[in-house]
Amino acid sequence: MKKLPMFALLLAAGATAAAANDSTGNVTVEHLGTNNTLVRIKPDNRFLILPVQESNEDAAVNVLVDGKLDRTIYVRLAKTRVDYNVPFDLTPYKGHDVILNIITSQNRSSVREAREDAFWKNITTSDTFDTTNRETYRPSFHHTPLYGWMNDPNGMVYKDGLWHLYYQWNPYGSKWQNMTWGHSSSSDLIHWNHHQAAIEPNGLGTVFSGSCVLDPANSAGFGENAIVALYTSAATSQIQSLAHSSDNGNTFEIYPGNPVITLESEARDPNMFLNKETNEWNLLLAHALDHEMLIFSSPDLRNWTLKSAFGKGLGAQDGVWECPDLFKLPVEGSDMEKWMLICNINPGGPFGGSGTQYFIGDFDGTTFTPDTDADGNVVTKWMDYGKDNYATVSWSDAPDSRRTVIGWMSNWQYAAEVPTSQFRSANTLPREVGLFKGDDGQIYASSSPSPELVALRGRTTLKKKSYTAGKSGKSFPLPTENGGICELLLTIDPRKASDVTLTLSNAAGNKTVMTYNPAAATFSFDRRESGLTDFSQDFPAVTTAPAFNNGGKLSLRIFIDKSSIEVFGNDGKFAMTNLVFPTTPYTTLTVAANGGNARIENQTFYSLTPVQ
Ligand code: FRU
Q1: Catalytically active residues, by annotation
Q2: In degrees rounded to 5, what are phi and psi of residue 6?
Q3: Residue identifier of the C-alpha nearest atom 11 of ligand 1
Q4: Model's pTM, two decimal places?
Q5: CA 60 to CA 17: how far, in whole Å?
Q6: With a 6 A CB cut-off, is 149 part of the ligand 1 pocket?
Q7: What are 47-85's pLDDT values in tens digits?
């Protein structure tokens, strides 16, 4: 046989010459088959830039460092177009050989087809990654991740003047995947600094929700004042893992004795606290599919004993039980204190999908006993009457006996479909929880905007002591600066009116209509024509809250960001959080009354200062 030159042999075998395929010369792609590609990386720059196409399936990207598997991440690699990029941090790999062994889906018939993917043409390295807020619907004053998907806030803890906020994060795309604890911190609950990932997936699984505590007496032996985290390691099963931080929550060391709690059924989202009455640690664990919360105790945060289970058959039971919390609070206007147990539930929320219910009762370190009504029934209560408040839990060790909470401002029904791209989901504004007695004798939780938020106020654009509103309505221009983000305050005295409506509108014909019905003592929010609504059939909705008695009047505090409206009624006796996606910002508030004139008092509009 005639001797063929080497390159001809390669071509005959269908091989591609492996050449650097991007302008940096740091990335070399070799296709091995229809669903397998090797990418050799020179980790000379800070980031590897991965192009994503959301409609594509996840590829398994195995990161090999000096030939050893370092991690596997799942990324929706761009096929026909690039929706956005995500950065993969190369700093830990400097000076090492990095190969990505990528397994894509089996949907290609030839290597030639595989070669056409946009991913291979656009993957590159860079020392910078631009996170400037350019998206129409990215909030200006709510916490969001810099990029990527976020769900539950979790593990929140206050230490040395900083509010640490960890969250369920996918660093490699704007849909749920690769669960990791993202980390932000703030000294004022408004301006957030973004930090490196705090806890990343390991051999026990991805990192689901959990909690953090300060351990001042070093009961766990990880050091005085260590931040101790307990979270769910999620793989085929869900088990509970410990980690601790001795650098103020920046990095966590994983406890080698993990897992510390195992069960034969699905259980997640451990939330622990120091019970000052028993001087023991307590822990609530969501026994998700059994619709109950398991209660444990421990002397040292490592060894946990199951004490009781709460909740079977009580409250809303339709969905899985998730993300618990338990704490004690004084009841306003009394010398009573009560325990409040938070139970997030999905689906089965008050308006479909996700919702945060709570129980008020007593807790002796072992058993939680819920309050009942006169007939001996446990009343179902909700922390928020909108569609977009979920996974609400509180900060551990907050100062001044504050019970500060924050929720995920979305709903599992459509969170992955909302019209944003480089990031998905924000958190609600931080809120202070209190307890008050309702007219029915039940104790309820109030949620008021955290006091720090007044610092967001910019110009007062309108101040009206009082006026009368009738059928034809009165219209007021909303603040327009900073993309129309604003805070509106007003008190409605309905007088003879059968209902009073507040309509937010714009020239594009989008409108959100809020209605106070004094006879029914309800406040409702209609977002069916609020702007973009057709990305999910579950999005258009009317949500309704009990207004809670305030002598017939309703005082409102309304925060409008780029794609959300949060309403706090009668000093937080009810809260309502709803996403809206107006095609241009709302420019007008129209106040009208039916069945008689209403009086509107102390109407004040503030423009707000963007923080991102
Ligand atoms: C709630 C939840 C938690 C779980 C996490 C996973 O939204 O389902 O139960 O820990 O999300 O991201």
Answers
A1: 152
A2: -55, -45
A3: 152
A4: 0.96
A5: 24
A6: no
A7: 999 999 999 999 999 999 999 999 999 999 999 999 999
